[in-house]
Amino acid sequence: MQEVFIDIHTHLESAPPPGSMAIRNIRLRHPYPIIPDNDLFTIGLHPWDTDEMSIDFDYLTKIAGMPNCLGIGECGIDRLRGTDFHRQADIFKQQVLFAEQVKKPVFIHCVRAWLEIMKIKSEVSTTVPWIIHGYRGKASTALQLIDKGFYLSFGESILSMNQVLSDILRKTPEDRLFLETDDGKHSIQEIYQAASEIKNIPLAILKDILNLNFNKVFKINGPSGMAAKD
Question: What are the structural domains of the chain?
């Protein structure tokens, strides 16, 4: 079966383009969001929302048990927006431990808190994958994250052909890589094409690699058969 373009993290509610599949991010907020019956999604308390609410774990357990819920997040720490840093860190840790309990990968939003995120990972005993979405940090930080077992997902910022970011993407191991649209205006196909050129990998091979990563991380055989649009 032909491999598909996988958009690992998007906020768009529309159907993914033909030949692709997407994991939609749902922010846990009041009133509770509408949960899709069939679309793949993640759900979590975003650090921007930690000043408004705490986590209803009974509700989250119910939603996380749905077969089309593939991860917890995006959650994390943002030093530039949201409530008190310590509250953000505490709620992030709660969600990480919950993700371990329900055996779902963690999708991470991080702004100027890389050391804290890595420290929490070293403190808690987890086996589920941790995915940094929309990575735009420093090269040295990327290397530390990769060394500690994180996956890095890149978005439309790679289209700017920024030399530093391009070099980070080029050096990211193929088995630690994902691509996403987030809330951007460019298609996942455009982002794949840019990544293919930056890493000097044929587009078809890049699709194969990311499909394998998807299967490994989410323990799903054949994303081409799940929510892919012909």
Answer: 5-220 (3.20.20.140)
pLDDT at 112 over 90: yes
From CA 179, how far away is CA 7, in angstroms rounded? 6
Cα separation, 1 vs 225, whole angstroms: 9
Tokens of 31: 């009133």
Q: How many Å apart are CA 196 and CA 206, to the nearest integer?
A: 7
Helix ranges (DSSP H) in 14-56: none
The per-residue b/e assignment along 39-55, b for 16 or more CB within 10 angstroms, e otherwise, is bbbbbbbbbbbbeeeeb
Give the C-alpha separation, 21 to 7, whole Å.
6
CA triplet 151, 125, 137: central angle to 5 degrees? 30
Q: Please, which pLDDT band fits residue 147 given cuts at 50, 70 and 90?
A: very high
Q: What is the pTM of this model?
A: 0.94
Q: What does the alpha-carbon distance between residue 142 and residue 208 come to, in Å, rounded to a whole number? A: 23
Please tell me the predicted confidence (pLDDT) of residue 161: 80
Which stretch of DSSP H or E encloses residue 43? strand 41-44
Report the greatest alpha carbon distance in the chain.
48
Per-residue 3-state assignment (H helix, E strand, C coil) for 197-220:
HHHCCCHHHHHHHHHHHHHHHHCC
- At 185, is the secondary structure helix, strand, or coil? coil
* Residue 110 φ/ψ, nearest 5 degrees: -140, 130
Q: Phi, psi (5° rounding) for residue 9?
A: -160, 115
Q: Across-strand partners of 72?
A: 43, 106
Note if the bond before 129 is cis, omega within 30 degrees. no
Could you tell me if 76 and 108 are in contact, meaning their C-beta atoms sit under 8 angstroms apart?
Answer: yes
